[in-house]
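Human: Cast an eye over this sequence-structure pair and say how the chain folds.
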Amino acid sequence: MKRVVTLGEIMLRLSTPGFERFVQADSFDVCYGGGEANCCVSLSNYGLETRFVTKVPDNEIGQSAVNSLRRYGVDTSFISRGGDRLGIYFLESGASQRPSKVIYDRAHAAIAEATSDDFDWDGIFEGADWFHFTGITPALSDSAAELTLAALKAAKAKGITVSVDLNYRKKLWSQEKAKEVMTKLMDYVDVCIGNEEDAEKVFGIKAQGTDIHKGEINHAAYEEVAKQIIEKFNVKLVASTLRESYSASDNGWSAILFDGEKSYLSKKYDLRIVDRVGGGDSFASGLIYGLVTELPYQEALEFAVAASALKHTILGDTNHVSKEEVLTLMGGDGSGRVQR
C-alpha cells in the first residue's frame, strides 16, 4: 500500500451556523482542518496509508485536533506536543453575491514556533512514497519555513516524490516574501499544484486573458504558465484548478495538467456550493492519489476534479467521500438521485 506524508498546521474551525453573518451568530459550529491535514483525510478515505506531521499544544484542544484525524485512520504517531496554543480560524459562509469571509487567529500557534528538533525525520519518512506540503505552512513564520525546508531535504534524501500546493494567503505574508521563500523550496518539488491566482501572486507568472472575477478562463494561457513554471523550477508536472466564479453559490470547476509536452484538460462541473473551503485540498489529494497509484495522467486529473466537485457539497474542511463515489461521478453519474 502506498504511503503519503504531509506536514502542516491543523486548526480549530469556528463557523457561523448556516449562512449567518458573524454579527448575527450566537454560536459557532466546530470542526478541525488545514490544507495538509485535509489531504491526509481524503487519501485515507481512498485507501492509502497516510501520516500527518505537526505540533499541537499538550492539552485537550490539541488532543481533539489529533482525534479528528485518527477517526479516519490517519497516522498521528509523529505529531509533536507542546507550545501554547492551537490556531483558530473563523468562517462566515457566503451566498449568491455575498462572498465568504475568513478571520485568522493563529499567531504563535504551536506549529508556527516548532523547530526541526521536534521531529524524527527518519522515522517520519520511513516507507513513504510521497510527501506533500502547501505554501501555507512556510507562510506561518520564519521557523515554519525552516522546518518545511528541513522536511523537504529529508524527503529528498530518501528519494520521495514531493508535491506542493502553492496556496498563497495574503493575510499570512506578502507577495515578495512568498516569492523569496517559495523559490528556495521549489528546488525540491516534483509536482506543483495551484489555482488561478497562485502562480501570479507567488511567482509573478500571470495567465493572460483570464479574469477570475468575471469567470473568464483562457486555457492556452494556463498552459503557458505551466510551461514557465517547469522551465524555471524543473518540476515534472504542473496542475491548476480552473474556477469560474459566477457567484458565491455557483461556480464552474475544472482543471488542467501539463507534463512539459502535453496538456490535459478535465471535464467541467457546474457546482452549487455548500462549502468551498477545502476544495483545493480535495483536488490536490485526488491528484496525488491518481499519480501515486500510477493512473494515466488524464484519469488522475479526472479523479481529482470529480473528488473536489463532490467536496463542494460537504460541510467542513474535509472531503468525506469514498473512492467508489468519486469513480461513480467520473463515470458520468452526477444526477444526484437517491441511492437506495
Notes: The CA atoms of residues 307 and 326 lie 5 Å apart.
